Every structure is written in C-alpha cells, then in structure tokens.
C-alpha cells in the first residue's frame, strides 16, 4: 500500500502488520492426559497416574473438529504459532474497522461538499401524493 497522505495512518500501520509473513495457526492449543483402559495399568485406578501430556492443536474445518498431535518438545513453538494466528485475526478485525471508518469519512466529506446538502430543501421537485387520503371515520 503506498504511503500517501490520503491513506490514514492507522490503515497504513495495520496493513504493514498484516503483510508481515510469519508462521501461524488457526485453532487452539489443547493439552490432555488420557486413561488407556488397559487391565493392570495404574491409570485405571488412579486419576493422577494418567498418560500424557499430549499436546495438539484443535480447530473446526467445514463443521468437523480436526486435531494434530505434536511432540511435547514442540509445544512452545505450537503455542507461539496459535498466538500469532490469534493476533492476526485481531489485526484483520481492526483493519476492517479503520477501513470502514475511512470509508465513512469519505462519504461524509462527499455529502458535505455536495450543493444539495448545502441548502435546506435542495431538491426543486416536490413530492406528489400518489394515493388519496383515507377517511378517518372508517
């Protein structure tokens, strides 16, 4: 996006932030401890002896939940990617807001500059009644 005075500063700042390439993910981070249900395993009797942690990223695609397991050593990297995705989504929402405000300002400026808006009753054509008035007695 060109840096011109016509483009508001918040729009320029957010467009630069959105253009910055970085790995990111949609969804949320999930850490689970599971029970295996094998006979004789300690997890069957003791809730504190469950297996895990199993780290995964969970998101919905076309109405279905998708998850991807990652090794525990990569949990911090996965957390950073999910947080980057959440920041990106927030930046997109903020970008929409500043662009719509910019659009509103353009509409308001164009409306204020029009000759019809400058004078009250700027339209020379008067409206005509299209139907006869109804009786108040019925």
Structural overview:
With 138 residues, the protein is α+β, with helices and mostly antiparallel strands. Helices cover 42% and strands 18% of the residues. It contains four helices and three strands; from the N terminus they run H-E-H-E-E-H-H. The chain has a three-stranded antiparallel beta sheet, with helices on one face. Helix 1 runs antiparallel to helix 3 (75-113).
Q: Which helices and strands, and how do they pair?
A:
Blueprint: H1 9-19, E1 28-34, H2 42-45, E2 51-61, E3 64-70, H3 75-113, H4 115-118
Helix pairs in contact: 1-3
Index terms:
138 residues; 3-stranded antiparallel sheet; elongated; alpha+beta
Shape: elongated
Largest sheet: 3 strands, antiparallel
The helix-and-strand class reads alpha+beta
Give the averaged pLDDT, no decimals: 83
* CA-based gyration radius: 30 Å
Order of secondary-structure elements: HEHEEHH
Distance separating the two termini: 65 Å
The tally of helices reads: 4
Strand content: 15-25%
Low-pLDDT segments, ≥5 res? none
Summarize, please:
The chain is built from 4 helices and 3 strands; from the N terminus they run H-E-H-E-E-H-H. The chain is α+β, with helices and mostly antiparallel strands. The termini are far apart.
